[in-house]
């Protein structure tokens, strides 16, 4: 029987859909950090995922090796990622010449440096991360529901709705939008644009750390486990447009679901090729829109 037809029962299909939406939820958490950084500072941070990796490693060492209380260890891991993200803005991003592409080169260099540093400091061996509810599950209506999936999906929905409310319904959101649209006018209104940008970078570190810890609990912890995840996150951002909010955030859920279904129907090795086929199809169908959006956002 062809693989495409051997998809199993309805219960299995619903379970795959739930798993895909849970993965998409974590993509949405990560993508929120990418979006706010891009819109406020007009930078793309290729080292974004590695910030979360370092936060996850710090938490791991504190609770596993030093035997600190787990909540405190994870909180300090998140704090480490927040500080590192803010330092990245203060020491690197602010010094970049105002020319297109420099941020990509600098953050790519930061990615390579942080990845090598993580290997040196923490080692290259795979580690089993803390179980974040992934060991708790129930079968409901023939569908295996894992508490870890519900956690991931819940985090994604909180990021989706919470990000929208913060940006559109709060004074902080007004400052963010003003800084994103015209920094000079924002400064004339008394907004400290540089400090706000650093705060946004710090917030992206928080999002990266939280998502990276949950992903490590679903996979394994090593220096490079976030690389394929971040690639998918950037693909979702490209499909939706980083200068928007709802389209890329919903695309994050869509990419997670698409990958999950592609792996289920065609086999686990088909997920990545299927995703790039989708990207190529979108670019062939509507290349002009993506080129125009990128030019306008980077102008």
Walkthrough of the structure:
This protein is mainly alpha-helical and 299 residues long. It has one domain: Orthogonal Bundle (ABC transporter involved in vitamin B12 uptake, BtuC). 74% of the residues lie in helices and 3% in strands. It contains 12 helices and 2 strands. The chain has a two-stranded antiparallel sheet with strand order 1-2. Helix 1 packs antiparallel against helix 10 and helix 2 runs antiparallel to helix 3. The longest helix is centred in the first third of the chain and has 32 residues.
Query: Can you write the helix and strand succession as a string?
Result: HHHHEEHHHHHHHH
Number of domains: 1
Strand order of the largest sheet: 1-2
Share of residues in strands? under 5%
CATH topology: the name is ABC transporter involved in vitamin B12 uptake, BtuC
Shape: globular
Radius of gyration, taken over Cα atoms and rounded to an integer in Å: 20 Å
- Low-confidence regions: 1-6, 294-299
**How many E strands?**
2
> Alpha-carbon distance between the termini?
53 Å
Q: What is the count of helical runs?
A: 12
- Please bin the fraction of helical residues: over 70%
Largest sheet: 2 strands, antiparallel
Please identify, by name, the CATH architecture.
Answer: Orthogonal Bundle
The CATH top-level class label: Mainly Alpha
Which secondary structure elements does this structure contain, and how are they paired or packed?
Elements: H1 10-41, H2 48-65, H3 70-91, H4 102-122, E1 137-140, E2 143-146, H5 147-169, H6 171-181, H7 183-188, H8 193-218, H9 227-240, H10 246-266, H11 271-285, H12 287-298
Helix pairs in contact: 1-5, 1-6, 1-8, 1-9, 1-10, 2-3, 2-4, 2-8, 3-8, 5-6, 9-10, 10-11
């Amino acid at each position: 029987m062809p693989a495409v037809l051997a998809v199993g029962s309805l219960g299995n299909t619903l379970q795959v859909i739930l798993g895909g939406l849970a993965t998409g939820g974590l993509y949405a958490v990560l993508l929120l950090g990418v979006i706010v950084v891009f819109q406020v500072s007009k930078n793309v941070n290729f080292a974004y995922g590695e910030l979360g990796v370092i936060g996850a490693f710090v938490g791991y060492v504190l609770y596993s090796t030093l035997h600190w209380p787990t909540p405190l260890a994870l909180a300090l891991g998140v704090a480490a990622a927040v500080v590192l993200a803010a330092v990245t803005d203060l020491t690197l991003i602010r010094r970049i010449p105002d020319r297109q592409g420099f941020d990509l080169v600098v953050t790519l260099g930061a990615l390579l440096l942080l990845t090598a540093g993580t290997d040196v400091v923490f080692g290259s061996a795979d580690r089993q991360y803390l179980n974040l509810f992934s060991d708790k599950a129930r079968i409901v209506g023939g569908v295996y529901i894992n508490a870890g999936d519900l956690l991931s999906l819940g985090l994604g929905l909180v990021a989706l709705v919470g990000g929208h409310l913060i940006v559109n319904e709060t004074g902080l959101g007004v400052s963010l939008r003003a800084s994103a649209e015209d920094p000079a006018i924002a400064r004339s209104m008394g907004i400290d644009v540089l400090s706000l940008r650093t705060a946004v970078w710090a917030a992206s570190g928080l999002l990266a750390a939280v998502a990276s810890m949950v992903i490590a609990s679903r996979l394994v912890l090593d220096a490079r486990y976030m690389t394929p995840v971040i690639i998918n996150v950037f693909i979702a951002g490209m499909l939706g447009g980083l200068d928007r909010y709802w389209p890329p955030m919903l695309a994050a859920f869509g990419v997670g679901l698409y990958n999950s279904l592609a792996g289920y129907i065609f086999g686990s090795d088909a997920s990545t090729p299927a995703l790039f086929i989708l990207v190529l199809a979108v670019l062939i169908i509507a290349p002009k829109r993506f080129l125009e959006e990128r030019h306008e956002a980077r102008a």
